[in-house]
Design goal:
The model has no long low-confidence stretch (mean pLDDT 96). The protein is mostly helical. Helix content is 86%, strand content 0%.
Length: 87
């Protein structure tokens, strides 16, 4: 444990940020799983709604720096292909 006041604060701030990142990453994964489940179910309208929600979550994660923008684009592209295969 650090002795210096600023170092103690950094430990606390880093722990809080790590918790935020973990929660945001978990929420993103949940949205992606909901989309995958909708695609597996084969219902086009439900998959379309889940797609919109998942794309929004991916964009939000990329804006916050949780995902690299190319990784976000790759995920959105893969989801679009899966959605279009249902038609």
């Amino acid at each position: 444990m650090p002795n210096i006041k600023s170092a103690k604060k950094r430990v606390l701030v880093n722990a809080a940020k790590a918790a935020q990142n973990k929660a945001q990453r978990s929420a993103l994964r949940t949205e992606l799983k909901k989309f995958e489940a909708a695609v597996a179910g084969g219902d086009r309208s439900q998959a379309g709604a889940a797609y919109q929600s998942a794309v929004k979550a991916v964009d939000r994660a990329a804006a916050k720096g949780l995902l690299h923008r190319n990784n976000a684009a790759n995920k959105k592209s893969a989801m679009t292909l899966k959605l279009n295969k249902l038609a």
